[in-house]
Fold this sequence. Notes:
A: mainly alpha, 18 helices, B: mainly alpha, globular
Amino acid sequence: MSTTRQAESTSLWRAPALLAVLVFLFVLEGTLSNAFFSGSWNSALGILNMGLLSAIMALGVNITWGYAGLFNAGVVGFLALGGLAPVLVATQPVPGAWEAGGPRVLLALAVGLGTLVVATLVAARVPRAWRFWAALLIISVGYVAYRALFDPAVIAIEANNPAKAGNIGGLGLPVLLSWPVGGLLAAGAAWGVGKVALGLRSDYLAIATLGIGEIIVAVMRNEGWLARGVLNFSGIPRPVPYELDLQGDPDFQARVAGWGMDLATASGIWVKLAYAGLFLVIVLLLILLSELALKSPWGRMMRAIRDNEVAAEAMGKDVTRRHLQVFVIGAAVIGIAGAMMVTLDGLLNPSGYNPLRYTFLVWVMVIVGGSGNNWGAVLGAVLIWFLWIKAEVWGPAVMALVTAPMPEGGLRSHLIESAPHMRFLAMGLVLLLVLRFAPRGLIPEK
Amino acid sequence: MDILNALVAILNFVIIPATAYGAQLAMGALGVTLIYGILRFSNFAHGDTMAFGTGLVILLTWGLQALGLSLGPLPTALLALPVAIAGTAALVLLTDRVVYRYYRQVKADPIVLVMASVGVMFVMNGLTRLLIGVDEIRFDDGARFLISVSQFKGWTGLDEGLALRSTQAITLVVAALACWALFRFLNRSRAGKAMRAYSDNEDLALLSGIDPERVVRLTWIIATALAVAAGTLYGLDKSFKAFNYFQILLPIFAAAIVGGLGNPVGAIAGGFVIAYSEVAVTYPWKKIAGYLLPDWQPEGLLQLLSTEYKFAVSFVILIVVLLFRPTGLFRGKSV
């Protein structure tokens, strides 16, 4: 890898040029109305907002991959875990839920965690041959105790107003506070996985994170007491005004009349612009922090470790520890994006977390944008997200054009119907082509 | 105490399904482990290769059914299997030629190959979607049961029934044949010995005149044949859904690592370890406890983990192996 990452001089104009292309695409989406563009600013801003969120996910992946060369295949799990935070922090408490079993659930979780800690401590102190059996014994006893405490508590919480609630309820705090909390949740999970899987072969981490990703999503689907599971949790509070409130506000009505716009459209655009501004601030803040970190002695050390682990180790750097650190930071950034995404949607839908969309597409974004370069990751993310969304529309349109000379019939309609699936094929090809012919991405690392 | 009924229940609900599932996992893990041994990377596209191959089998099965061809009591899919294997292997060899070969030549880091396999995974996923869509499909035909519950009760006079589905029996037969053929090939034939030599020590193998590209091609063909067979058997046993084949990637990787990456015997053992643990941990043991200890009335279902968390079992086993024996039970490679 070190051969592909040597600094070469590349044009300074690449990033501004890519930015200009992106602006141009979004203006087209907002103004032109034809088979390829919707001509609606609401749609353009909607894509932009998810694009900015994807940019934050890409930043998180770029920190672990670009700075340290670690492969995190569980982005979807850390994202979903971050999405739990708005529900737990920002929604109103559910009457009776805490009394029904809150302390018991906490006690059960403490017993579970304590079991793991005790097992680790004991395993480190007994002779090697007994290590496994000692840990197994402690964990078996601990698991029985945990289930005995946990199950009745969960049943009690889920029985509390099951039609409307059935979950533990939130703390009723401001929703913006839940974003860093989402980061903390993801960081905690990442620490656990990293502690076990780092320091071994490089693809063990990939496989372990693939597993934890699936497990976190499964937990969110099945643990109804947390956030209602597959029943979804809607009505998460917003940091920006609601469209309906805006439409009823006389000041806003007067201003919209001045612009000569339709009230419903204007309120939608207003809300989306507010989100876009908020997200942009976070993206820029994260880029600033990442760049500062990269230029600090710590960043130089990370790149030294990435480019030659053996040499860095010889210089007395604790490679495994540094890897753990950077893996946790990357996961935390993804967790923040997860909390922001749930806030934007106002909905936590655990069944919607698809690994192809939320793990591997984010990887395509980073590789295409330029691994190791934060601007590259961000611009690549917005570009790929735009193409991913529009490919669903463009695929059938292009296919209809291409197949126009064909006779009407089964094959032609099958081709047009399956055209939206083409985007998976297209993304795979884009990833393979970039990896092969431009491994440093659109905006290479400096 | 009713030991006989308890044994039958364990056989029916745990041993038989877990053995069939274990055989499917073992065949998948064999492919992963062979690719790891020869090409030295974890192939993330393996699950989607299984899905693509199974999709091909389904299309061919429909074609054969339309022509009125069948295998009598056996599922028609078995007739379609060799053709689908050939088709999928051709596609996989093409991906090796246009994608992986370059990274071998430049001696890229394994993680770059893993990344390339993610690209191939996307392509395979897209092709599967184009080919057959994302819906759930059942494609088993022929006889459904070798032994049905009522037959078994009639023969034995026990309260507890036992069913052996024909797909389960076919899985075991096909898996046994595949393993027998694979080990015979690896241990007896010249090409198989070349593969083992290449896996053990690349430089020495090159020195003794083994053609690396030929070894790689053989590896892909064998791994693909195993993957398509495993995918088809899994689809016959449960049902075909493209996403399930992505999810089965985790148990397959876990099986390969538990056995020791690069070690074929380990992959088979790993497949069964994962399958038995998964089924045993997610099975509600209340019924069996009722036979063995009639006086004890437990409150719950005596289920250690609900079925939705079956992937957690592979994950936990994976973690335990990584913690206590990173090279796996059978001492695979540890780079």
